[in-house]
Prior knowledge:
The chain is an alpha/beta fold. The protein is 40% helix and 18% strand. The protein folds into three domains: 2-60, no CATH class; 71-83 and 328-439, Aspartate Aminotransferase, domain 1, CATH 3.90.1150; 90-323, Aspartate Aminotransferase, domain 2, CATH 3.40.640. The strands form four sheets. The chain has a seven-stranded mixed beta sheet with strand order 5-11-10-9-8-6-7, with helices on both faces. The protein has a five-stranded mixed beta sheet with strand order 2-12-13-16-15. It has a two-stranded parallel ribbon with strand order 1-14.
Amino acid sequence: MNDARRLVPRTDAVLADPRLESAQARLGRPVVRDAVRRAQQLARTGQISPAEVADAALASLPPRAAGLVPVINATGVLVHTNLGRAPLSPAARDAAAAAAGYADLEYDLGTGRRGRRGAALLAALARAVPDAQAVHVVNNNAAALVLVATALGAGREVVLSRGELIEIGDGFRLPELLASTGARVREVGSTNRTTLADYAAAIGPRTAFVLKVHPSNYRIEGFTSGVGIRDLAGLGVPVVGDIGSGLLAPHPALPGEPDAATWLRAGAAIVTASGDKLLGGPQAGLLLGRADLIARLARHPLARALRVGKLTVAALEATLAGPPPPVFRALAARPGQLAARAGRVAAALAAAGIDARPVSSAAAAGGGGAPGVELPSAAVSVPASLAVPLRCGEQVRGGAHPAVVGRLRGGRLLLDLFAVAQEDDGELVAAVLAAAGASRGGPR
């Protein structure tokens, strides 16, 4: 044991290896040093030779300094909350990278004085929703509602249908969210039916606004009734509409999904929406509507705590002003195109000896958008035994390929192509081939 310990190279000597010096520049010295110490311990216990310490340390290093792992979303759910919702467009990624250093976030380069924060973003959002007199951006849609309720409803009543007392992600409930702002929720109607008379009877001197919420993650069917924005707007108090999913204008693939432009034209005083769902951008909360009310929200002290950072400002502007993001590209794909892609992917896998075949599939918008609406898609069916090695991705394959998440159906793993960019088909094939080798105990 003593001889083995003397043969193990010193930490500083291993860290001087050019490969590990490069890794330190990428990952930081502490991460690399810890990997070296683990490798040294393997050498001390005889699991590797002293000459293999640098190689073992290098092999154990993560591909990036951050722990988030890139994923190919083959679930068929376009806006997948657990996978980060909407993927950013190349233009948005480039914009965020450009803003990562110093940028003119609140600086007017022409005058050399302080400028309006995110002025170009707000202008792009105003152009995208011309029915809004004014716009503002916060860090997510829940924050947008909190700001509205705090600035307009604290100490007053917010009238809301019982059929719209929704629970959003991770167990957060809308009534509790509103109550935390100091507003009192005045529930009207029943779970399945609320009438205009219900709203009218609840409105009084203490009413701050009527809140209309799109129940984006469930549907109530059967003996139901609700009240639209246009009728609510005639009650004499502001109507705040939460469309949730972030659709700014009608989309032919989602004809029943509410959008900001339609609700504003119908008389909503304020519409709130998410930036990272059907809009296809980064996480953000959009506030659109009457100029006087938006100005009150923007100058409220809470707005400072909810503002977005420079990376969001850059990515959201590029999403609004640049080419269509991946979400819109996916929604525009034709079933025949997806089927042809599935056929090519399956053929490439079958040629390598994998039991793969193209199948029809049904995708979903996800992220609370268009609940219950099935979007025609195509998938590649492979053995269910590949699910775990594909999900483990980088851990199994040493970072050579991203993780792949599909869905299990009927004892098979379906790799749905609806949310997979066409340019990633080759990467998907390579990942499946590598995962198949790992599942068989082959080279990793």
